[in-house]
Amino acid sequence: MNNNKFTSPEDLNRLRERLVKQREEGRIIITVCAGTGCLACGCEAVTAAFREALKENQLEDKVEIRTTGCHGFCERGPLVVLRPEGTFYQRVKPADAKLIVEQTIKHGKLVNKLLYRDPQTKEVIVKEDDIPFYSKQMRLIFGMNGHMDPTSINDYIALGGYQALAKALLTMTPEQVIDEVKKSGLRGRGGGGYHAGKKWASCRRAKGEPKYVICNADEGDPGAFMDRSLLEGNPHGVIEGMVIGAFAIGSHDGYVYVRNEYPLAVKNLNIAVDAAREHGFLGDNIFGSSFNFDIDVSRGGGAFVCGESTALMASLEGKIGEPRAKYVHTVDAGLWDKPSNLNNVETWANVPLIIEKGADWYSRIGTASSKGTKVFALTGKINNTGLVEVPMGITLREIIFDIGGGPPKGKKFKAVQTGGPSGGTLVVETREPKVHESLVAHGDIRDEEEVVSLLDLPVDFDELTKVGSMMGSGGMIVMDQDSCMVDVAKYFLNFLQEESCGKCTPCREGLRITLEILTRISEGKGQMEDLDTLEEISQVMIDTCLCQLGGSAPNPVLSTIRYFRQEYLAHIVEKRCPAGVCKELVSHAIDETCTGCHVCFSVCPTNAIIGQTKTLHVIDQDACIQCGACYQLCRFDSIKRVKRGEGDAIQYVAKEKWHPPVKKKAAAVA
Amino acid sequence: MSLPVEAQDELEQIITSIVDRYKAKPTALIMALQDIQKYYHYLPIEALKLIAKKMNLPVAQLFGVATFFKAFSLTPKGKHHMCVCTGTACHVRQAGVIVDNLSRSLGINPGETTPDGEISFETVNCIGACALGPVITVDDEYHGHMTVAKLNKVLDDLRGKKTAEEMVEEVQ
Amino acid sequence: MEKVSITIDGKPIEVEEGSYVLQAAEELGIKIPTLCYYEHMTPYAACRICSVEARDGKGWTKIVTACNYPAWDGLQIFTDTPRVITARKVNLEMLMSHCAPAPVLQELADELGVKEPRWGIGTDTCIMCGLCVRICDEVVGAHALTFSSRGIDREVSTPFKLESEDCILCGACARYCPTGHIRMTDTNGRILHSELTLGPNTAISIPFRQAIPNAPRIDPDYCIHMATGGCKLCSKVCPKECINYEDKDEFEELEIGAIIIATGFQDFDPTPMQQFGYGKYPNVLSSIEFEQMNNAASPTDGKILMENGEEPRSIAILHCIGSRDEDHHKYCSRVCCMYALKFAHLVKEKTNAEVYQLYIDMRTFGKGYEEFYQRILTEGVNVIRGKGGEIVPAPPEYSSEGNLLVRCEDTLIGKFREIPVDMVILCTALEARGDAEDIARKFNISTGADGWFIEAHPKLAPVSTTTEGVFLAGVCQGPKDIPDTVAQGTAAAAHSIRLLNMGEVLMDAAYAEIVEEFCSGCRICNGLCPYNAITFDEEKKVSEINSALCKACGTCVAACPTGAIKARHFTDDQIYAQIEGILA
Fold first, then answer.
1. ipTM above threshold 0.95
2. Contact C150 B60 (CB under 8 A)
3. Inside any domain, residue B75
4. Cβ distance C178 to C129 under 8 Å?
5. Which of A58, A152, C306, C341 gets the most CB atoms within 10 Å of its CB?
6. Do the Cβ atoms of C466 and C444 come closer than 8 Å?
């Protein structure tokens, strides 16, 4: 067909009905997740193996393979779901493809070793929807990902795509669209939490032509990848949201500023934009409504600061991505000094939903001040790493323990960091039992109740801000007992320092000085005054930094000092790193649990490990450079990180207590 | 530094095609630079000057942009490109140990290239494969759940691959 | 724009809505410190030193930067709350930890009471105010500078850190750099004294002090606007809107009755005389530079200072630089001895420095001159008979007396001397202007071997030239001092007035004439006339002779191929008649 353009919603409906019918023909569909996480695990080879296996069994016309966007459960990738039953296979290897085809598809038998087993209850779960990771979520905008091929516009249309656009364009006025979004209570998902409807309204009111609509997909937060997964898995949802927004605002030019580090997102987005243009969802006279709008995809240069709206616009203009000093909002003077409305990927993805299902429906989800769902990237020391979409107001406990499955290897949960580098580290649950006497005098024991209550904190924009963090774009990094809070603060400050554009004094110099002080503390050279200095600098940075990036940069320092003051004091007063992370304060030592497996020996770069197979190994304290290679490798937790200088004492005791490992055979005989 | 004539011609051709592709719009400047970087693995000075001329932008602006964004390099990169993710998720899973060890094994700091021009190594803030952390990429191939032992193997493979190729070349 | 009322530190003021707080504060006389602000550019708000506290009176409060915070009705600004002071202090301390040596930071530190910056003292000289980059981009429009890298690695740089091809050498970046991080240097490493004595060159100036009209003009060769189309700062600051960039040089044709040439001289450039180290040592000045430094409006406010801003301990004044010199000009420049003595007098008056005069012969020939010389001697000026031979940096053992060493021969005592001084003034020769030859050709007068214009007769017609109605005045005719110049000028004026008053020129009876009917318009005669008396009439296509200029030499008469030119009283017929008369 030469002209694929839809000129009326009827055309769209007809196609949709036909597609739905096709999909319901009772074919079995193998969906293979092809998000970046699963791609990294080798899902492409799995897909190829499936194709091969189907060919061998001559099932090609009965079974369809669909490579989809990210399902969210990255920890278990590559993921394979057989629809319509919803049988869920995890960590599928190419070799397993044949097995699945022959057993499940041909004979309806399950492949046990690939099924999900709940780590806590050990219960085997067959269906995707029954897995706690999924069942506790509310996957409004992520739900589609697992059901469609992101490169196929037909899949999107079959799932009801572009219906909202037709509704907005043909049955609503721009003011009605804005009112609907206002009524829904949708707030910007990029971090600030500004009401999207209000922003649109002021952009519509702003004087100046042309107006621009921009989608911020410069997801620079380390540990956040939901925007990428959305663009990879459901680019049309974002495009549809942008067109509706542009219609409401009165804009005809749109930009998507996407990180170049996301090649798949760029690729899928470009395919989607071309397809949308071809079908008449972009371009002139959309749906015959005489409304014109088109989107340019612009690849960003990779700078965290470009997530800041004015910096992003400067970068779009082909300039250095430094924020502009403006107390005038970008809705009045943004890109090329014209009114510009910038929202992030997730915000745009919410728009079609609101228009289609109505503001009343949407505003029933969430809390009083924060509506709808939020996607979090749950990462760090957690069993179920992945993307989770939950309604606002869910507690941290539910996210971390019920969905995330808590920290791995039974380690104790310590803290969770939200809001990206400029967010805060929250929630203490374990506390270092040993508190130095001098610290007690310092009045640093916190109220246990406050500590516990934070885990039950309902997660929404305002609650997180209240406790010294922020929603940010939704990164949620879990830390366990092995994470040192000084090190975490140092890490974020180092990140921010590298990413600071360097324009304003407090951010450029303040971060450098803060980092110097933190480094000093982590090396055991800190002073008690340092904490006050850190707080003073932080306050000045909050007060005087030019952009939000700098203004929120002290958050990691302030929140870790607020919740983990005793850990700072341990570094400063006792010269000890309780988590054993700060290199300058730890010694590595091998205790009596050593099995003499000799693995650590080969990995030591300085040959500091002495020992032979089946004998107790010892670390030469003078030669050890605390690189941690052996610690990472030891499967028996025999390598300990202790206070600097105490290594030999541990090893001396170990020598006393150590026995050669008893041979299994001998034990059986005994 | 000036390029030989053939290289100059090639550069001219490449840049003309890139600038034409983006219709010389300033919004596409960063993309144009990315394309050049992709082709040459760095941004030659001549290329920047030529782009400036074709897009009618000041050279100073291009230099500013090229040094501002980490993705660009004004010096040539190595044949193989290793990237250690130091995103938060990887950091709490000890990516620092990987960086230190790689740095020591290669004898260079992040952002540098080995003297033989074989391997470039840098750190990157999150490549979005947090579930695999700590993760490294070698020539865009992901290696997840890295440990020092695995890292050594990766390095051996990389070097081994190199020698194998060379052997083939020698035979031929 | 609507007017809104705001208060700053409790003082109310009405300003335009959206105008910046800093300007309002300025109007109220409240000082807010700034580092990166320049009134003619978009506020950059990078230094954050101008932080103030904004309140709405209902509990909302925020630290904002005064340079770019727009005024709105009911805004209350506080410039001295503890929060503001801490913000400024900490920011300053942070800046100092990066670049302490900048005097502008030291001043600010004194103002804010920062005694010892807590985070150490940095060594950089750039405070990242971005004035240079922005002035180059926004005002000059040359785009030769940029910020490179980011974060703590950020720095001001030319593209690729090489010499920028876009730089127009306007010097705006160096002029506005508050710390001296950017400097203008001569590519040959020469020291540019004009910076020291005159301040930076500007494209707008009054051509010379007594110019008529006494109005500034734009020099298109130096004007940034003419080069890049940017800048226009002058039109922004001119309250009367007098700046006209469209104005062009115009050529006008005037009918005049007399011409006085008074083109003056040029200063001898002592750079080639390497033994004197001019352009190499910063404190070796030419006499005109020293004169300019003494002007009350000079960058030193008329004080005699060395390049480092200190007063010199001793000064040597070297006579006859380029004059009375076989290698340069053999003549005596006539004025140097007297101004050198004046310099000595000025130095003695303004400083405690020791003065040495090194001369060949002291020529104090005018009225009262010798008496002035005697007076200088009583003021304690050291007068040494002997030309300065060489200037070198003083070895360390002389450091208590001077940084330079003048080597010379004292011919009165017959000894070589080495005199340590801090400053040297070279009394450079007066020389004919480089374009004197062109002028001479234009007016059909001649120059001597030294380039000075030659008068009609050295004794009897010292003001006139060989061209009727063209007179000489001043140094263009030869070195002379002010009284002589005035005298000659007056004489030239008198000559001119005589001509003008007569209204007509009394001509010799003998002059050449062209008979138009015979003239072929070949123009051979035009170029031959030694007095430029023949011009070509484009309309009639014939040549014409200005009979007032014609000296009846007869060259044209002889050359005319058609015989159209006749010398009055010497026509062929008359000459034949005379010959006949003689032979008869």
1. no
2. no
3. no
4. yes
5. C341
6. yes
